[in-house]
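# step 3/5: fold
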Amino acid sequence: MQSKLTLAFACACALLAALLGAASLRAETTPEPTTTTETEPELSPPQPDQREIQRRIDKYRHETWRWQRLMGRALMLQLPNPPAEVDQKIAVWKRVAVETRQRALNPPHKRQWLCIHGYEGSWTDPNAPYYGGLQMDLSFQRTYAPDLLRRKGTADHWSPLEQMWTAERAHRSGRGFYPWPNTARYCGLI
């Protein structure tokens, strides 16, 4: 009986030693949670790749070119003083596109063209020999908007803004409002 008790005591001691050993092993390999106020470094947002950067720049460049073509201006192929930072470069192209759009939507003599239009035909007037809202003949269209005439046909297929910018090119060339002698007089322009 005593040997059985001794054996049971030895097993209990061995079990206790094994449990204590496992606990100390676990304590050595498992890191304790830290209670310090250290913060993990913040991850910066992923940087766009070169293709995405170029896509963003091209979006604003093409919009700028669209409005410059409408106004009959030379295309700005690159920024005069491009910033070094990519984000700044995108922001500058965006600003240029917005400013160019504003200029294009407001031709210098817009009020005068709208007055002339009020005495002329519909913006979509297809009746020869004068077309559109400013009643432009084919010779006028060939001279001041050959690309529009080639791409879209006669002025009755152009937007009102395209018609006004065509008239603006004629005005800038020195013709003034004289291609519309009667309606320009009604509007007090000549």
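# step 4/5: annotate
The chain has a mean pLDDT of 86.
# step 5/5: archive (pending)
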